[in-house]
Amino acid sequence: METLYPLFGFSVNVSDSRDPSDMLLPLAPEPYTAPTDRDMLPSERREFVRTHRTCVFGYRRRSDGPAMSVVYYIPTDTGELLVSTMAGRGKARVVERDGKVSLCVLDERWPFTYLQVYADASLDSDRELAVDVMMAVAGRMSGEPLGEEARPHIREMSEREDRVVIRCRPYASYATPPRHLHRNDQVEQLSHWVSGVVPWDAADPS
């Protein structure tokens, strides 16, 4: 059965027997390339997030500036972004207390750019989901899906490390086009402009 997921603007084949809320998207063959001469449209922002794999995960601390760490994230067909962590780590503890996080999604190619996603977050302690996410993260690390023969090892690691999943539900994003010098004589042509926060599910201008 083919199902359309409007938050990301694409369709995939899904099994009728599987809960679609837990369907993790595969690694995209090619990451979306942000335009360099204009801001990204709302649909392009969602595509940028769907087709990349790493981000700086940030959350508020009581007495200091934001805590930040680089993590792999897994998008789902319903628009959530899933992050694996240990239940005893700061990310999990703060999500239980606060529920607000930001993910600075990173482009891995030059000219380097980024897109910041603001999200509501919650913890999911489902063991099978934790294993699924860890399997998907391993595939993003290596660039190809992990075979099912690795699942018992991943499950054992998940239980040993007391892994949980942070479900991030984006509600807004912020982006600016990448502006770079390719030669020093271009410095007089370099310009920057301001952008703004856009609702995650915003429609493209007509």
What does this structure look like?
There is one protein chain. The protein is of the alpha+beta class and about 210 residues long. It has four helices and ten strands. The strands form two sheets. Strands 3, 4, 5, 6, 7, 8, 9 and 10 form an eight-stranded antiparallel beta sheet that branches. Strands 1-2 form a two-stranded antiparallel ribbon. It has helices at about 40-50, 90-95, 125-140, 150-160, and strands at about 1-5, 10-15, 55-60, 65-70, 75, 80-85, 100-105, 115-125, 165-175, 195-200. A hairpin with a 4-residue loop joins strand 1 and strand 2 (about 10-15). Helices cover about 20% and strands about 30% of the residues. Mean pLDDT is about 85; it is low at about 1-20. The protein has a domain at about 40-125 and about 165-175: Pnp Oxidase, Chain A, CATH 2.30.110. Keywords: Oxidoreductase. This is Pyridoxamine 5'-phosphate oxidase N-terminal domain-containing protein.
What is the number of helices?
Answer: 4
Number of strands: 10
Helix-strand string: EEHEEEEHEEHHEE
The coarse silhouette is globular
Contiguous runs where pLDDT drops below 50 for at least 5 residues = 1-20
> Fraction of residues in helices?
10-25%
C-alpha Rg, in Å?
18 Å
The CATH superfamily of the domain at 42-125 and 166-176 is identified as Electron Transport, Fmn-binding Protein, Chain A
Describe the biggest sheet? 8 strands, antiparallel
What distance lies between the first and last C-alpha atoms, to the nearest angstrom? 31 Å
Average residue pLDDT: 85
CATH topology grouping of the domain at 42-125 and 166-176: Pnp Oxidase, Chain A
Estimate the strand proportion.
25-35%
CATH architecture classification name of the domain at 42-125 and 166-176:
Roll
CATH uppermost class of the domain at 42-125 and 166-176: Mainly Beta
